[in-house]
Amino acid sequence: MSESFLFPEQLGAYYARVAVREFPLLTRLREETAKLPSAGMQIAAEEGQFLDLLIRLIGARRCVEVGVFTGYSSLVTALALPADGFLLACDINPQTTAIARRYWAEAGVADRVRLELAPAVQTLDAELAKGEGHYDFAFIDADKTGYLDYYERCLRLLRPGGLIAVDNTLWSGSVADPRQRDPDTQAIRAFNDHVRADQRVDFCLVPIADGVTLARKR
Length: 218
Ligand code: SAM
Ligand code: CA
Fold this sequence. Notes:
seven-stranded mixed sheet, binds S-adenosylmethionine, Rossmann fold, about 220 residues, alpha/beta, binds calcium ion, about 45% helix
């Protein structure tokens, strides 16, 4: 588990010991990613475990992910899917997603994943052009100023009862600090207000990792 602003140090260490049971290949991906300067972009292990449980709980077969990086959350998702499951993975970075592809292959789940290297709005719009309501689960974890665009599109892609999970909605606590007025913090505040007012979904902002908002399409 990465250091958490939500836990005092001692409880954080205890939580990491009793709450996380990471699949060995995911541990290896975490270790490889830790060598990159952008390693902090990777989701926390306990968050991966949470996503895994959600995907299994709702029996998801078709998933979409916005923000792949080196593939931790996409590998979690692909491993949680049944053999005929499908993940549409959106990113713009060929270098980091080459690492993701290597791990999908090693895990034997590469045939479940379609990676689209293009701005995610473009990929999601192309998917929407094929129809709406044919996805079960979406994970949003790309550029924060795009969150509302991704959320609106993913909501249309989901079936009723489908679930969107959105990462970093507590943004290390800076959302609660009125002195923080940078574009990412403002975008996350706007997103949080938007979901709370959105009567199309049932929702919960779960204080795990950096905050994960769950929105279930009504
Ligand atoms: N979920 C990933 C994981 O588990 O490691 C971390 C994702 S990282 C925080 C954000 C990713 O979003 C980066 O890989 C970046 O290339 C991608 N990204 C940024 N802007 C994007 C855009 N407009 N469309 C698609 N992906 C984008
Ligand atoms: Ca994130």
